[in-house]
Amino acid sequence: MTRLIVAIGWMYVVVLMAATQDGWLAAIGTLVFYGLLPLGVVLYLLGTAARARRRRMTTGRDPAMLAADARGTGPDSGPGGREPD
Questions:
Q1: How many of the other CB atoms lie within 10 Å of CB of 35?
Q2: Does a structural domain hold residue 80?
């Protein structure tokens, strides 16, 4: 949620900067090179952990689940928290 608020604030500033440019080409350049391009890179980098977590969850290779299974407390454990023999 905080990322969205920061992104909206950044784009607001960039749109105001673009509006003060002398020509339309300078305004588009300002919008792209000060706004869309850097914001896209930052949001992509900030979303890397969430994408990796989502990928691990869909493939069943979540480290937390693997650690719980190793301790015998995971969802595949038998009664009493131990693997069935």
A1: 19
A2: no
The number of folded domains in the chain is 1
- Is 38 domain-assigned? yes
Q: From CA 34, how far away is CA 66, in angstroms rounded?
A: 43
Tokens 């749109």 correspond to 15
Residue-level pLDDT at 22? 94
Q: What is the mean pLDDT of each run of 10 residues along the chain (85 residues)?
A: 88 95 95 94 88 81 60 56 51
Q: Which residues constitute the domain of residue 8? A: 2-72
Distances in whole angstroms, Cα of residue 42 to Cα of each of 8, 21, 28, 35, 54: 13, 25, 20, 11, 19
